[in-house]
Amino acid sequence: MIKVEFLGPIGKTPMEIEATTLADVAVKLKEEQELGAWLDKCAVALNDTMVNDLTTVLKDGDKISILPPVCGG
Q1: What average pLDDT does range 1-5 have in this prediction?
Q2: What is the pTM (predicted TM-score) of this model?
Q3: Which residue, 1, 9, 43, 72, could crosslink 16 as a Cys pair with Cβ 3.0–4.6 Å?
Q4: Segments making up each domain of the chain, as ranges
């Protein structure tokens, strides 16, 4: 199982899914209606390391973090 957490204002409870690549995660997340407005704008971290290659292979216990854009001062 892969744990997916949603940071900041996304406001969605973490979930666990079966996935072998980041592409699998993307497909499953796009099925979630409330995430539609966020996914194209967010960065993704795998075990606290930024990633952007959808072919990245995942293993049981990995943690995916969905990071929305933020503003700072």
Answers
A1: 97
A2: 0.90
A3: 1
A4: 2-62
